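[Discussion] Sanity-checking designs against the backbone

I'm trying to build intuition for which residues belong where. Below is a structure token string of 140 positions. I'd appreciate it if someone posts a full sequence so I can compare it with mine line by line.
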């Protein structure tokens, strides 16, 4: 079983379990995925949440991307490449790692990974800001 954070085209976020990643793709293809809030069938998966390091440049770049995020897919692919190159992937351990980075001043590295909505809310309460980005597949 695999849990994805899903988001509809009206920015509703929710979680859903799938037996594997193909199941998600199949359901999406058959239009069987539906937003639990507005019943939209325009659902996308797997929000990744990069942690922005202290570096001002990095911060600037991320904001730049953030502004243009919804414009085009190419930007998202660029962003994905950028994140993969500059951030350490920590996977589902993200919320744990992000705390380590956040509370350790010597260890300001940029990481990315997946979180649940719940974890993100907890982190936000602790003052840890995360940026969610739609994670686009290179091949579709
Ligand atoms: Zn919705």
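Best answer:
Here's mine. Compare freely.
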């Amino acid at each position: 079983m695999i849990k994805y954070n899903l988001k509809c085209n009206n920015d509703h976020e929710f979680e859903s379990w799938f037996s594997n990643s193909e199941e998600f793709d199949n359901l999406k293809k058959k239009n069987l995925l539906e937003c639990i809030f507005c019943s939209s069938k325009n659902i996308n998966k797997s929000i990744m949440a990069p942690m922005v390091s202290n570096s001002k440049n990095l911060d600037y770049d991320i904001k730049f991307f953030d502004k243009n995020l919804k414009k085009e897919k190419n930007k998202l692919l660029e962003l994905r490449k950028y994140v993969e190159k500059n951030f350490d992937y920590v996977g589902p351990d993200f919320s744990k790692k992000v705390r380590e980075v956040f509370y350790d001043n010597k260890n300001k590295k940029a990481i990315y990974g997946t979180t649940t909505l719940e974890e993100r809310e907890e982190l936000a309460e602790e003052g840890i800001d995360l940026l969610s980005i739609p994670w686009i597949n290179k091949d579709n």
